[in-house]
Amino acid sequence: xxxxxxxxxxxxxxxxxxxxxxxxxxxxxxxxxxxxxxxxxxxxxxxxxxxxxxxxxxxxxxxxxxxxxxxxxxxxxxxxxxxxxxxxxxxxxxxxxxxxxxxxxxxxxxxxxxxxxxxxxxxxxxxxxxxxxxxxxxxxxxxxxxxxxxxxxxxxxxxxxxxxxxxxxxxxxxxxxxxxxxxxxxxxxxxxxxxxxxxxxxxxxxxxxxxxxxxxxxxxxxxxxxxxxxxxxxxxx
Length: 237
Known about the structure:
It is built from 2 helices and 12 strands; from the N terminus they run αβαβββββββββββ. The protein is elongated and about 70 Å long.
């Protein structure tokens, strides 16, 4: 709860500073601090590994999809294309490690059979935005869309139960690892308070893409889609 008050206070203060001077069409180096939430269990792609691990019957794992919610940080270069349009090129980073245990198995010593699921994403985005009030307005709502190239890495490390070896328990940290880069749509909308030298605001982003895993995983896909809620701070020049 405390971090929400801190972020809200920072946003309000910087917005007041930004509003103190008239804005004009400028380039902006934008910094974002946000919170990424993956798509829920009922909205994920068919064959998604996170759903597959949850619903693997006798070999299912204990966790929740929203355990993969994570902090996100990023930066973006924004440049005007006329008074009502701007382009953006940005990159962000998020990573979350989720501890899990088997639903129906324990070790011979009575302890849980545990493993860590980790998802890392580094989206590079290319967007175009419409600013209805114009870039010279101190209050700038915007909506836009574009493409994202999402570099990702997904891994499962720890203890595993092997169905093909009489449910033997083994430890592994290298076999269940996959990475790649996928292209998908990005949609963004937000509100910005812009001054001559700084700007501040908040925005919501949606991304959609899916990566391909190999046959060793419980599912053949990893859904990379979700929503990011950002606080933004920009330096204008």
